Structures are given as C-alpha cells and as structure tokens.
Amino acid sequence: IARTWRHFLLPLVGLPLPPFAEDSIPETHGDTEYLLNVAIYEQSQIGWDRLLLGMGSMVWRSLQQRLDSENPKPLQRSANSWINSAIHQLLKFSLRCWKHRNRHIHGKTRQEKQQKALNAARDRIKTIYHSPPQLDPQFRSIFEIPLLQRLRLPLFAAEQWISLIDHQVKVTKHNLKILLRQHIPINQHFSQMEIEARKQTIRRQQSPSKDTPRKARYRAVQLATKAMRDKLYAPKPRQLPAQTRSTGRPYSRHKPRRQNDGTITRHLLTRRHPP
Known about the structure:
Helices cover 59% and strands 4% of the residues. It contains 10 helices and 2 strands; from the N terminus they run H-H-H-H-H-H-H-H-H-H-E-E. Strand 1 and strand 2 form a beta hairpin. The longest helix has 28 residues, at 79-106.
C-alpha cells in the first residue's frame, strides 16, 4: 500500500519518482490483486490529492486486513488503527508541504514577505501595462500615470490599484453581457420592420376611410394654420364716426374730386389691410 501511495502522490507534490522499482506498484495475485485494483480505481475517482486531505477509499482498510491475515506473525494493532494512523501521517505530510510552499513563495521573515509581495505586485503592474485590459469609457485610462511612477507606489497602494483594475474588468464584462443580451441583430431588426409594414398595409386595406396617424396630424396642422391666417388677415368691419356737437353732421374723411361738369364730389377713402 505504501509503495502504491508513493507512486501516485510523489508527482502531485512535485517530487520525481525514484529510479528503482521499490516505489513502483507491486505485483500481487488473487484476492489481494483484486482489492488493490479496486482501491486504486476508487481512489482515482475520489482524487489522489484528496488522499492528502484524509479522504481515502475504505477499500484500503479491507486490503490491509487481508494482508494482516496472511502475515504469520501476530500483530498488536488492527486494520482500523492502521488506517487511522496512516491518515494522520498523510495529514502531517500535507501540512509540512503547505508550510514549505508558503516559506518558498511568501518568505520566512516579515520583511522578506513584504518584499516578495511588493515584487509580485510590481510584476502584475508591468503585465497590466504591457497588455492593458479593455475597460468601459467611464473608467479612467491606465496610462494617465506613467509606468515608472506607478512602480514607485508602496505595497498597500499597489495592491489597491491592482484590485481596482480587477473590479473594473469585472464590471466591463458584466456590462458587455447586458448589452449583448439587449442587442438585436440587424437581420432580425429588418424582419420586424417588414412584419410591421405588412400589418399597416393590411389595416389600411381593411379600413381605407381611416387615415394614418401621420396624415391625420398633417391635416390637423394644415387646418389650424388656415384658421390662424383667416383670423389674422380678415378685413375689419367699417365703422362710421359719431356726429359732432358743433355741426351735427357725421365726420368723415372725404377726398374732394372734381367732375367733368364742374361739380365736386367726395369719395370715402377705403382702409387698406395687409395682404
């Protein structure tokens, strides 16, 4: 069982397989071979990385119980205690690998951790400047501040700016999805226009006496314009002036005109209106 586990777990943690055959899958026969194949299959379905987290197949216990029954020496432990101890050792090994990875990536001391985080943030800033993402026009341009000035930012400001760019990228993708959902293809748009035109033609044929809204509005505007012109340019009614107190005769503006026979007549001047 240990040789089988080493064969599948060593590549997961980045360790090469040994060249000798002691850590390869052993050759078994009979019921032991059947149980070993079933355990390998079930663990492959669960995941070999999950075995480092304590999630293993129960067939391993049955296989260990089978091996214990074939051992001529009496054992002081059972298969249940063996599987519990094996899971405990796998968890300790996984925890050690995780701590070693953290020390290698993030550093051992606090200063080393901050320096590694700052280097990672600067590398990310360079990547953003060399391949800028597509952002909405509502956001400010990335190149408003030069790259050299952006690289001088402290760790907290650099991480804040990187998180801001990530958020803007998510918002841009979300807005693009909404626009694509609301977008109507041009061929579908023309198809809807043709359908609407057919419906209007059918309505006109069914009720030819009724005008379209556009024609009715045009006719109403023309009638209102004509009524306004008639009211504005209509001739005013002629009113005779009242009689004067001195002569008792009505006052009128008459222009004297001499006839051929020598008599003088007066013609009333008509008032001119604007055309």
